[in-house]
Amino acid sequence: MRIRPISPSSLAEEIADRIAERPQDAWTRVAFDGAPAARPDELADALAEPLRLRGRAVLRVSARDFLRPASLRFEYGKTDPDAFYDDWLDTGGLTREVLARLDPGGSGEVLPSLWDTRTDRATRAPYVTVPAGGVLLLDGALLLGRWLPFDLTVHLRLSPAALARRTPPELHWTLPAYERYEHEAEPSETADLVVRMDDPKHPAIVIR
């Protein structure tokens, strides 16, 4: 295994090139997986313009908009790491309303958000149509190992020390969930691309 340092802008361009090589008549579902401290949302955002310049339509979706209602998320309390790992993400809703609709032969009509955790109500967002060749950029945490149908997965890895250092103290209760994730889902082994993000200004691609 080797580590190749890369600038954030070059990282976005390199991933965009990789996506653009995929068939232009098919949808591409890309997951940017990482704890919030790794900033997967920022990397997903950074891909939008490079992909549009390469002739690809882009839809940005965040897994945080597909969490379960509070009554289900907090059944065992608001700081239970196992519930955070197992029960918070509505994988059924995410698959049904987004990912499966971009399967070969799918409708291409995607619901960009499902649940607003601030109001604990459905967002009532309208469906949007992703044209053929369009790219879904989905960011979120703990996404791998759930049998979600992605076409490309990018895991943003933090060392345990960096994760603890960059996670706000009020969220330290989530750290055991990420430790469990590393052991059970093995994202650094199963993701198509692994990027070390201990210093977000100086990422590094893991070459296996």
Number of strands: 11
Distance between the termini: 5 Å
- Briefly note the CATH topology name: Rossmann fold
What Rg, in angstroms, do the CA atoms define?
Answer: 17 Å
**Annotated CATH homologous superfamily:** P-loop containing nucleotide triphosphate hydrolases
In terms of quaternary structure, the protein is: single chain
Shape, please? globular
Helix percent reads 25-40%
Q: Approximately what portion of the residues adopt beta-strand conformation?
A: 15-25%
Number of helices: 8
What does the average pLDDT come to? 97
- What can be said about the biggest beta sheet? 7 strands, mixed
In short:
This is Uridine kinase. This protein is α/β, with parallel strands linked by helices and 208 residues long.
Brief descriptors of the model:
208 residues; alpha/beta; Rossmann fold; seven-stranded mixed β-sheet; two-stranded antiparallel ribbon; 11 strands; 32% helix; globular; kinase activity; kinase; transferase
Write the layout of secondary structure elements.
Blueprint: E1 2-5, H1 8-20, E2 28-33, H2 40-53, E3 58-62, H3 70-73, H4 81-86, H5 91-99, E4 109-110, E5 115-116, E6 121-122, E7 128-129, E8 135-140, E9 152-157, H6 160-166, H7 175-184, H8 187-190, E10 193-196, E11 204-207
Parallel strand pairs: 2-8, 2-9, 3-8, 9-10
Antiparallel strand pairs: 1-11, 4-7, 5-6, 10-11
Helix pairs in contact: 1-2
GO molecular function: kinase activity
Organism: Planobispora rosea
Keywords: Kinase, Transferase
